[in-house]
Amino acid sequence: MIKKQTIVDLIEEHFAGTDKFLVDVKVLTGNKIEIYIDAPNHVVIADCVALSRHIEGSLDREKEDFELQVSSPGATESFKVLNQYKKYIGTKVKVVTKEGVKHEGILKNANESEFVVEETRREKKTVGKGNHTVVEDVTLTYNQIKETKSVLPF
Predict the structure, then answer these.
(1) CA-CA distances (angstroms) from residue 74 to 5, 36, 77, 113?
(2) Does some domain include residue 67?
(3) What's phi and psi for 6, nearest 5 deg?
(4) What dihedral do alpha carbons 69, 70, 75, 79 form, nearest 10°?
(5) Domain ranges, residue 21
(6) pLDDT tens digit string along 50-71?
């Protein structure tokens, strides 16, 4: 069985000095390897092909046969690494906490320990009739989060 760390090391070697980053690696039964990569702007097919060739050239199919798939995470996939949060700063995201609380707003900031979402919502006025707009920064830690996804602007 091919070890996940072997694949991670090969990816880090290939991406050294570039802006591309690893999102996830899965080594499944039958040596099926799934790799998800991303970059601050975008990943093109040529990036996936180059990484695939690097890994295939570094592993010996005579020792262990394997199936390899390299792609970028889908637009509707949940964020897995800090670099994805940083990539989406300034865009709308939807967050669900482990307690089931939902937040939706603009991702304003992200660091190693937490991220900030600016929520805009309508609330009833405390005095008088009608509603008013409330803008609030919500700070969340990663261990509070069940999932964070980008909201597609259609």
Answers:
(1) 24, 9, 5, 25
(2) yes
(3) -60, -45
(4) 100
(5) 4-71
(6) 999 999 999 988 888 999 999 9
